[in-house]
Amino acid sequence: MKLIGLILRAVLLIAGLYVLTGPHQSRTPSVAVQYGTWCPEGGCVTIADWETLASPELRLPLALAFTYNPQWRLVAWTATARGTTLRVGSLEKLNTPRGRVLGAYNALSNSIIIDQSVLEAPIEVQAAILSHEMAHAASLSVASSLGGQFMAADCLQEEARAAAWELSTYISVPHTGSGSLWNASEDLLVGYWKANRLSERIMLTPGYQRECLGRELAAP
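^ that's the sequence the OP posted. Answer follows.
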C-alpha cells in the first residue's frame, strides 16, 4: 500500500519452483505434494528463494497466491529476482484516524513490510495484500521514478495497478473467511474493479491521497 523511495536492482530473472509440503517448509524441488486442505489436487508450488527472502509467516499466503493466480507469477518472479525481502512488522506509525496501512514497499531497501495485524486476516486476504506489495516491487513505473519524474498521477496509477493484482489474487484463492470485515473490505474493492471504477476508489482513499498528493483531502 505505502510506496516509499525507489531503487531498481537489475538481476537475471531466475526463480526455482518447489512444492510446499508443510507449514512454511520446502522439501523436494519440483515434486508436487498435497499440502493439507490449502492446496489443489497435486499440491502447491511457489518460489524457492522465498525460503530465505520471506518471513515464515508469509510463505504460505505467497504460495497460495502463486498457485491459484498464475497470471501473477511473472510479477512474483520479477520482484524475487530483484531480491525483494518480505517480513512482518508494525506499520502503526503510518496510520491516520481515517485509515491504516497494512503493507508497505520500501524501494530504497527493496523490502516489503506487512503489518502484524494482517496475520489475523483470512488467508486469501493475506495473499491479496502480498500480491499488491509484490506488484510494487516488480513495477517498471516505480523504477522510472529514479529520475524524479514520478508525479501524483503516476503514483495513483501505480496504486490502481497494484490493487488490480491484489484483487485478482483475492478472487482466485479459495475463501476461508467469507463474512469477515477483512473480506467485506476486499469485496467492496472487487465491486469497484468490476465496474471499472478502481482508479476512482484509489483517488478517494485517504492513505493514497497522503501518499500520492502529499496530504489527505477533506472528507466529502
